[in-house]
TrEMBL record:
It comes from Thermoanaerobacter siderophilus SR4. CDD domains: ASKHA_NBD_TsaB. Pfam families: TsaD. GO terms for biological process: tRNA threonylcarbamoyladenosine modification. InterPro entries: ATPase_NBD (IPR043129), Gcp-like_dom (IPR000905), T6A_TsaB (IPR022496). One of its GO terms (cellular component) is cytosol. This is Universal bacterial protein YeaZ. Gene3D superfamilies: 3.30.420.40. Residues 33-224 form the Gcp-like domain.
Amino acid sequence: MKILAIDSSSKTATVALVDEKGIIGEYSINYLRHSVILMPMIDELLKKCEVPINQITHVAVSEGPGSFTGLRIGAATAKGLAHALNIPIVGVSSLLALAYNVSEFEGLICPVIDALNENVYGMLIRGGNFEVLIDAGVYSLEEITELVSNYSDKVLFVGDGVYSYKDKLQEMIRGKALFAKDKDNMARAASIGELAIQKIKKGEVISYFDFKPMYIRKSAAEIRLSGEGS
């Protein structure tokens, strides 16, 4: 089993090769023009790891939430490769992948992706056994505060929402809020790939035809067109 993992749901474009033994290789670049660099990154990764593309058995990709454009680019890339190679896709939550970056933490883990206007895409996970306590959704900072206040544990925030709202979260959740290191706040395709292995073992794969990103909410353009924001 060799999994090509892709995540372009944030500013970071990241690709990785993983198997049951661990990470074979990984490239990450903080560059917003994902449509330009994603395929060259994949090509270079395969060459450096000396893995022929026909040895890839699954394509794992971030299913969201995150940047609407980034998710579409990642999905299109994954679907195109899976179609060409006739292999299945494994969709992995970008929030779960962020939490996996700090999975050794045994308290509460709250991955947060900035959804603008003091809102975040977030969920709540118990470190250690990786139990999902609160499902993924769009939450205001006040709602996040209320959710974590139901638990006595300290909570580790991870993701780009840390950079946007660290000070406010620290003020609102006094004494309980911890924040991940910069390296762990970045999306990592290796985390997507390692979580994908767990899903593959459970038979949780999908065809390239059926895979769709999980946006959670409408894009700003869709809201404007529907008149919901007026």
